Amino acid sequence: xxxxxxxxxxxxxxxxxxxxxHLRPLTTALMVATRSDPAVxxxxxxxxxxxxxxxxxxxxxxxxxxxxxxVGDADxxxxxxxxxxxxxxxxxxxxxxxxxxxxxxxxxxxEQEKNASAPLPSGPSAGASDTARPARGRAPxxxxx
Length: 145
Fold this sequence. Notes:
Blueprint: E1 11-16, E2 19-23, H1 28-35, H2 38-41, H3 49-64, E3 65-69, H4 83-90, H5 93-114
Antiparallel strand pairs: 1-2, 2-3
Helix pairs in contact: 1-3, 3-4
């Protein structure tokens, strides 16, 4: 069952001990805007999946982060979120992974379910042969409608 959160309120997510970010809900509008972000579109075709994921995560975080706690400059002074600071935060591997798991992956669960559908005839498995066969001794049943 799909549970809809009709409040659509921002939420706090803990990314590391003592580091929390206040994030907008992961909506369709936010995902569409992120996909057309200039930094995402600028990723070259030969980029690895990891490079693409990092560019997307940074662009998404720049749109989603409203506030944070536990993030400071090199001298330990608390700083407010900015595009440069958000990018620097996501350059920290455990923070990037936590952001992906706590925020991005939850929003993509439904997207993954769509991946279970049959491949397109023009997709990567276009030349694949069928492997399903009718059971022996049974005639195919006609579909009634």
